[in-house]
Amino acid sequence: MRCLVLDDNLLIALDIEYLLRGAGVAQVVCAGNVTDALAALQNEPPFAVAVLDISVGSDDSMAVPAELKRRGIPFVFLTGMGGDDPRARRYPEAPVVDKPYRAETLLKALLHVLGKR
Fold it and tell me: Fewer CB within 10 A of the end CB, N or C, for the chain?
């Protein structure tokens, strides 16, 4: 299984990578910006799931969930802005996990979206 992590905070991205590898994810690709995340989506094999920060620097990160949805790849939003963010509401199928996050909460959200496939 491959997982994409989009977060502009390197420490958070590395923490998520460590968590996912501990949960058995074979490959975690961390992207610190939208351009890198969209480029990673072009590589094979396809991602099984993604964890996305809603606010990534000054980039409009909504191109990434749009592309994931187009490809049928489930994702979870991880944000300090909460589920009331209008950008997250565009994708009601994507759970929103608040920062600071608990490992169990993030893993549960990922299992939830993976179970819908």
Answer: C
